[in-house]
Amino acid sequence: MAGSRKYTERDNPRELFKNLYAKATALGLSEKDWKKLDALRDIRKGTAKKPFVVRVVEKVCLFTLILCAVLLFIIVTEWPVSNNKLLFVWFKVQDLDPYHEQCLVEMSESISDYVRPPVDCSFCEGVTQIDRITNITREQFEAKYAYSGRPVVVEGSTANWTAMNVFSFKFFKKIYSEDSPSLVNSDTNCQFFPYATSFENLGEVFNMSEERALMKDGFEPWYIGWGNCDFSAANILRKHYHRPEFLPVDSESSKTDWIFMGSPGHGAYLHIDNVDLMSWQAQITSSKRWLLEPPPECYYKCVHSMSTVVSPGEIIIVDTNKWYHSTLVVGKDVSICIGSEYD
Ligand SMILES: O=C(O)CCC(=O)C(=O)O
Ligand SMILES: [Fe+2]
């Protein structure tokens, strides 16, 4: 094309600027003078390329900021968590039954311990020991223990329970049919506590070898608990025990029986519960040490720990929502306990 010329190295803006810089410096322009030039500052800013790492960090920060904004939006507006349709999808994605699941997110016990609201420490103020009472009347029980949060062991209240002779690993195994919901925790009421064992459900417990169940030497010890959700098993269980007679007449009992069973030297780790009501627990076989501690926020008002050994035929009443509690089987045989809640 006429009039056009070839692009040369001299036309390179960098080269052009280098020449200009050399000429200006030769004419006496100092580095300080250069820095005063706004145009030069703009050129420097515009052309300076940020290092790769800085650009990546910037992008990550931006992404995190957007993510936080979205999460904040969800938390503040409760969207989409409060949106039923999306909730339904959320459950389905997790393969949960949206009609039976109680909580959107299963909170682990260790987390729920940290996020629980602080308790009113009056329940443990002045309580220095776990009282022991024999043949307590309803009136005495109601006046001092039923709803005060003060723990107590009642002696001699299971005298006419056939459970004392009937309950055993073998007996429990027999009262559950093969398709019992209790064996596979198919319901939220069928809670199973494996504690330190690797059992995943009650079905697996009943499948352990007879030697292990009977704690023969060399077999792994075990300790577990479960909430019975099988009505036909409950009917059989209740033929052998009844609600303690000292409980207030008009108090409702929970329909769920809790059973805890296992080897000497084992038990439940220290925890606090989130159940609806007060609990009673009867020791059927062997003996178990209970350790109770008030929540840490009550340390300045209450004794830091109390313990007692509960023997066969004794019933312990504890507000397990207020007292941290742990247990340890101290007898020689398999420990079996049955309990429930009352309001
Ligand atoms: O009996 C046990 O080992 C634990 C009982 C328990 O944690 C409860 O009854 O809340
Ligand atoms: Fe508990």
Kindly describe this structure.
Mean pLDDT is 85; it is low at 99-106. This protein has 343 residues and is α+β, with helices and mostly antiparallel strands. The longest helix has 26 residues, at 52-77. The chain folds into three domains: 9-47, no CATH class; 52-106; 121-342, Sandwich (Jelly Rolls). Strand 1, helix 7 and strand 2 (152-155) form a beta-alpha-beta unit. The strands form two sheets. The chain has an eight-stranded mixed sheet with strand order 1-2-9-6-11-5-4-3. Strands 8-7-10 form a three-stranded antiparallel sheet, with no helix packed on it. The protein has helices at 13-26, 31-36, 38-47, 52-77, 84-93, 109-115, 138-144, 163-166, 169-175, 202-206, 210-213, 231-237; strands at residues 131-134, 152-155, 192-193, 223-227, 258-262, 278-285, 288-293, 306-310, 315-318, 324-329, 335-342.
Question: Any descriptors?
Answer:
single chain; 343 residues; alpha+beta; Jelly Rolls; eight-stranded mixed beta sheet; three-stranded antiparallel beta sheet; 12 helices; binds 2-oxoglutaric acid; binds fe (ii) ion
Largest sheet: 8 strands, mixed
Bound molecules: 2-oxoglutaric acid, fe (ii) ion
How do the helices and strands follow one another from N- to C-terminus? HHHHHHEHEHHEHHEHEEEEEEE
Distance between the termini: 100 Å
- Give the second-level CATH assignment, the architecture of the largest domain: Sandwich
Strand content: 15-25%
Assigned CATH superfamily of the largest domain: Cupin
